[in-house]
Amino acid sequence: MLVSRSTRAPLSTYVTDILALVKTKNPAEPEFHQAVEEVLESLDLVVQRRPDLAKAKILERIVEPERVIMFRVPWQDDRGEVHINRGFRVQMNGALGPYKGGLRFHHSVTLGVLKFLAFEQVFKNSLTTLAMGGGKGGSDFHPHGRSDDEVMRFCQSFMTELMRHIGPDTDVPAGDIGVGGREIGYLFGQYRRLRNEFTGVLTGKGLNWGGSLIRPEATGYGAVYFTAEMLATRNETLEGKTCLVSGSGNVAQYTIEKLIELGAKAVTASDSDGYIYDEAGFDRDKLAFLMELKNVRRGRVREYADRFKGAVYMARDAANDFNPLWMHRAHCAFPSATQNEVNEKDAGHLVGNGVAAVAEGANMPCTIAATKVLIEGGVLYAPGKAANAGGVATSGLEMAQNSARIAWPRERVDTELHRIMKAIHRACRDTAEQYGVSGNYVHGANIAGFTKVADAMLDQGLI
Ligand code: NDP
């Protein structure tokens, strides 16, 4: 039976006070407030059973980053004009291992966005079963429309400062929105030049210079593996199921690839300008076109509808308070673009159309109100920190290969990824059951991720 949050007692005064304090101390950071609120709702269940956590002020500590680094990133464009961007690295919690988490380059990046992402990352990394703390970083630099040379100059300037704060045993960044193989290459090159070290300081590296097979695929594949596990609890499989996917970047592409492999039909993809609907579904050729369009030509998703008859393109309409992508009939949905892309109304459309499972490929793509609608609607709903943990888990496997200076074959990495996703699914389900909220993956993921970090913090004393 699914137990929704709204059927629970209201939040305790203790947790309500911490939430109020977070809002006061971190004004103008709505995404961070949202992420903390979502996690604290679950942790209320834990602190009621564990007075030692309140005594050691673990919740108060866990919402405070261990360290935040903010710096100027000056660079010149191809015409010689000078630009100044802002760079960040949020080292949120290192109790379980070196800080680990991606870098995001997007005009919407602020300290609050990166704090929300770093906070989520702490629990996600804990769930992977690997030894990784949580961090996140990035810049308000927007790579769209920039030449390769401009991107390189920006990356070199960014790394010139960041290199003081990271290292293979300290903090190991990876990619995220706007940071793919090209950017990781430029960042790694500058780190290597400045430090005169060839180490596993970044993950998502090229295959011939320390990268891991399956790392590019891992987040999307992992989200699909997790969904298969959820459906199995209802004796269903993905075969023959229609699926909605948003985004058209790394996570969306490999979600579609794994869905094709498992016999499901992915019918949508999007970017910030709009989305395409292809009733016949993606096949391998269509996906190859999308990958070339996005990864090589860096074009817009609308071109897909020009190329394939039967596919339609819908431009984004800023006047809408809903996204029509989520109105198509489907069995599963994979929001894989960005935060808060599924609101309460969108969730209502998904439930109304009988969607059975929603797995967050992106980080926090559903608003809190949307998650409530999904859970109360009986949907198998996997939060990002569980569903998209395959990416960072495989980054952890890349770190292990770098430390041993060996490269595992594709099958071994994929088998490990699959095993980890199954383990995360089991941990979420078992923990939800232990806390009397069976079937609630949000509580399961938050509590399972948190307790491991909290116990490590207790063991390590007041730091
Ligand atoms: P990419 O940069 O490869 O792709 C991002 C996609 O999302 C693009 O299609 C982009 O469109 C779209 N998008 C970005 N911002 C917006 C917006 N404001 N509105 C609508 N569409 C938008 O990033 P990833 O695929 O790597 O990341 C996608 C999500 O998955 C993010 O939330 C990220 O944090 C999360 N994630 C990624 C992991 C990874 O391994 N890469 C691991 C775990 C989570 P456009 O081209 O128009 O910007």
List keywords for this structure.
463 residues; alpha/beta; Rossmann fold; 3 domains; 5-stranded mixed sheet; 5-stranded parallel sheet; 17 helices; 13 strands
Structure at a glance:
The chain is an alpha/beta fold. It has 17 helices and 13 strands. α16 (about 410-435) crosses α17 (about 440-460).
Topology:
Elements: H1 13-25, H2 30-47, H3 51-55, H4 58-62, E1 67-76, E2 82-93, E3 99-105, H5 111-127, E4 133-139, H6 148-162, E5 171-174, H7 181-195, H8 215-232, E6 242-245, H9 250-261, E7 265-266, E8 268-271, E9 274-278, H10 284-296, H11 302-307, E10 311-315, E11 332-334, H12 344-352, E12 357-359, H13 368-376, E13 380-382, H14 384-387, H15 390-404, H16 410-434, H17 441-459
Parallel strand pairs: 3-4, 3-5, 6-7, 6-11, 11-12, 12-13
Antiparallel strand pairs: 1-2, 2-4, 8-9, 9-10
Helix pairs in contact: 1-2, 2-5, 2-17, 5-17, 6-7, 8-9, 8-15, 8-16, 9-10, 12-13, 15-16, 16-17
Task: Give the distance, in angstroms, between the N- and C-terminal Cα atoms.
Answer: 40 Å
Q: Tell me, what is the CATH class of the largest domain?
A: Alpha Beta
> Would you report the number of β strands?
13
Low-confidence stretches: 1-7
Structural class: alpha/beta
The CATH fourth-level homologous superfamily of the largest domain: NAD(P)-binding Rossmann-like Domain
**Rg estimate, integer Å:** 21 Å
